[in-house]
Amino acid sequence: MTPSPSRKKTTAVTSPKPKPALEEQDKAASTTIEVAAVEVAELTEEEQRDRLRLERKVEHAFYEAGKALMELRDRRLYRSTHKTFEEYCKDRFGFERRHPYRLIEAAQVVDNLKKMCPIWTQNEFEDNGATVQSGQVQILPASEGQVRPLTKLEAQEQQQVWQQAVEQVGGKVPSGRVVKDIVDRIRERTKVPNPYREGEICVLLPKDNPDLRGKGGCWGVITQVGDYSCTIQTWDEDYTVKIEHLKSLELLDDDCKFMQQLCLRLRRLHQVADHDVSVDWLLQGLGKQAKPYLSALQAKLLAAVEKEYKIEWKQNK
Fold first, then answer.
1. What is the CB neighbour count within 10 angstroms for residue 199?
2. Does residue 69 form part of some domain?
3. Residue 61: domain span
4. Residues 53, 118 within the same domain
5. How far apart are CA 111 and CA 129, in angstroms?
6. Where does this protein have compositionally biased stretches of type Basic residues (predicted)?
7. Strands 131-137 and 201-204
8. Which H/E stretch holds residue 165?
9. In whole angstroms, what is the distance from residue 299 CA to residue 173 CA?
10. Which of 81, 101, 114, 266, CA to CA, is 20 to 30 A from 165?
């Protein structure tokens, strides 16, 4: 038997990759990449005009939105899909209840300023200092926040405050803070005492306050008096409103006491759980009858409903 030839075990050795020479590394590190300069073409006169026109659109987008919302509301163009304007704005635009009305109010202020504000001489510049446009322009608000402090002022006051704010910032568009500071100073100087008192009976005037929608003609009792507002208690809810949303019935003290007690009776009925819908009809009717008395039939109906729900009522003298 012939022995098998012996085999030698060999191991392959891989040589490490040689590192670049030190001078090559230095050379690579010091390599300079040349970038060709890109020449920026200047805007033509037509392009400058287009730029300014488009910038104005961006700045005044809130105004266009307010005008559009006003038309949607006034023409009730939401009625095919939504019961109320507020629901439509929330579903379609994601607006919370108060925001669409702020935009509408802001657009109304801008319309007023367009009619009344003076023309200003103004220069506009590019970053490099080249004059883009020089001439006379009307400086108007660029955001809803700049207009918001003006919405509760009369038209003439809006114009005066805006003009003063523009002058204060050197003929530019003032910030909302600047406008608000001027409004606050004017109100402080011309502060008129709140004409209402606790216990007084007033009627609600909704005007442009969305929180009072459907409450026109409702009466209530003043429960708290502030500098520029009051809290009024009606048959179904408490509202804190500005004094311009109230009108006093100018009743005698005894008549005020009767209405105060009537308000409490109506509220107690309203708070009865699962009451019949006919109760709401009675409450809504009496809640808008701004008179310090009940007819004989009204008194019987109210007493009968209270008896039905076991509500005892003893008139205070």
1. 13
2. yes
3. 48-125+132-189
4. yes
5. 33
6. 1-10
7. unpaired
8. helix 155-168
9. 61
10. 101
The residue from 189, 216, 231 where one domain ends is 189
How many domains is the chain partitioned into structurally? 2
Which of these, 242, 196, 244, lies nearest to 221 by C-alpha position? 196
Beta-strand pair 201-204/246-248: antiparallel
CB 181 within 8 A of CB 146: no
Beta-strand relationship, 131-137 and 120-125 = antiparallel
Give the whole-angstrom CA distance, residue 125 versus residue 18: 60
Tell me if 40 is assigned to some domain: no
Looking at 174, 189, 204, which one is the last position of a domain? Answer: 189
How far is 144 from 175, CA to CA, in rounded Å? Answer: 10
Angle between helices 155-168 and 176-189 (to 10 degrees): 120
- Residue that is written with structure tokens 């230095």 in the block: 26
pLDDT in tens, 284-300: 999 999 899 999 999 99
Residue 61: inside a domain = yes
Residue 24 lies in a domain: no
Asked whether the beta carbons of 221 and 232 are under 8 A apart, the reply is: yes
Length of the chain (residues):
317
